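May I ask for a protein sequence together with how it folds?
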Amino acid sequence: MRISKVTPLVLGTPWRNLTFLKVETDEGLTGVGEARVLNRTDGVLGYLSEAIPRYMLGSDPFQIERLVQRMFREDYGRAGEIIMTATALVEVACWDIVGKALEQPVYRLLGGEVRDRIKAYANGWYTVERTPGEFHEAAKTVLEKGYRALKFDPFGAGFYELERAEKLRVIELVEAVRDAVGPDVEIMIEMHGRFNPVTAIELTRELARFRPSWVEEPVPPENIAALRKASDAIAPLGVPVATGERMHTMYEYRELFEMQAADIIQPDITHFGGILNTKKLAAWAESYYVLIAPHNVGGPVSTAAALHLAACTTNFKIQEHFNDFADAFVLEAAPGLPKVVDGYFSLPQGPGLGVTLDEDVIAANPRQKVHLNLFAEDWHKRGGEKGTT
């Protein structure tokens, strides 16, 4: 069996463009990958225009490790977000093909399930005015949709530090969400790498009373020493530190693990070279007693990939999901994903990823002009170019 045709497709929404990769074989099997590319869709498409004929066409889709290593090594320059995203697109599609060929779900080809269901948390639910009352009501809708955990960024357009009035507002927002969901629902606090260490520490100290399950990316991702400084001060507060969505290769995690700078890692499968690469990282993390909670702002295919990883990974914690709170038609682009019921996904059903690409839905929702700027006012409303993400 050989890869005979590879076709990128882009589906647009007011706040994210999703890049799908349709991979066809000479034996009639088709696989699909997908990623939410952050402000770099053209970069990934441009790289794919070179990588498809160079690496993908004519390759055996069963030789996943070989294909990934060729894409990582043979261009010589250091692989980063664009290359690792393109690699993930074809890697996930190949697993889909292999699962279909063997008539098995992907997780059974990676060691088999270690759990019967997969815990989920909601994101993207707080596209409202940044007031305690509106956050309170929005949080209730999360529970109505069957979730028992949710994440949010209450910090507005904050960068490095916050004015005192903004700090007080943040406390009110988190208090409102905790009041809405009650004491037993998990809340995660997203910092989006906004703060210097001292501000991240101060804010976590103020928010610890609300018992967050983690604070995420408290400092920008480039400086692991700064993360370690924040993490060391946050640990006595009993709040775990999570990070990793903007780390794209195994080598970037070495210093983080050696410095024991985080409790939970959040690689994005679709920006980390795919499912197997992320499973290797999870195994490495386990030797440091670190949990994995994969980042996922993608559509149904990237979510399916994450669920297959979760099913067979022992140190998995919880899975992020956006698609119950934004752009309902996105799920129609690849139906077959299990729904969240009582806080959990059921295991995906195979063969392969268990979803089926609908190109008509993609064609009906073309790429949009979207710019994600997490440091703009009202970014959280996810309303297109003026209220991006």
Observations:
- The mean pLDDT is 96.
